[in-house]
Automatic annotation (TrEMBL):
Keywords: Electron transport, Heme, Iron, Metal-binding, Signal, Transport
Domain of life: Bacteria
SUPFAM superfamilies: Cytochrome c
Name of the protein described by the UniProt record: Cytochrome c553
Signal sequence extent: 1-26
GO MF terms held by the record: electron transfer activity; heme binding; metal ion binding
Pfam families for the chain: Cytochrom_C
Residue ranges annotated for the Cytochrome c domain, each copy included: 28-108
Organism, scientific name: Marinospirillum alkaliphilum DSM 21637
Length: 109
């Protein structure tokens, strides 16, 4: 192999390496896009980024596990004082609620 061909070979191996990594990367950004879209319907009440202070509880920066279990409880009708969240949560799959929980947990208050 000439030195030149060897370089090409290395470059090609590098490209293959990138291609092997990118599906993971694409999955992350797909979830981020889906999360932003889902979360946009929460902003009306909870404020942009879930930081609104007022009678509606702030949800940003809480642990994802707490948010997720609250959302699942709303969905299953296990939150006796719910006014709107019980109906709202039923509009999402469990997976979408988990995505929303992770999204708001990652926003700093
Ligand atoms: C129509 C207004 C409205 C919208 C839209 C809304 N929420 Fe709520 N949310 C509330 C109210 C009001 C409460 C207090 C519980 C209740 O009355 O149902 C609440 C409570 C919560 C709680 C529990 C917080 C706590 O400490 O008790 C979480 C978590 C939550 N909402 C997440 C979300 C997410 C995620 C979305 C978007 C999918 C969303 N909410 C959309 C009004 C809203």
């Amino acid at each position: 192999m000439t030195p030149h061909k060897h370089l090409l070979h290395l470059a090609f191996a590098g490209l293959l390496g990138l291609a092997a990594v990118s599906p993971l990367h694409a999955a992350a950004t797909a979830e981020q896009r889906q999360a932003a879209l889902l979360a946009s319907s929460c902003a009306n009440c909870h404020g942009t980024d879930g930081k609104l202070a007022g009678s509606i509880p702030a949800i940003a920066g809480r642990p994802a596990s707490v948010l997720e279990s609250q959302l699942l409880s709303f969905k299953r009708g296990e939150m006796p004082h719910a006014t709107v969240m019980d109906r709202l949560a039923r509009g999402y799959t469990d997976e979408e609620l988990a995505i929303l929980a992770r999204y708001f947990a990652n926003i700093n208050r």
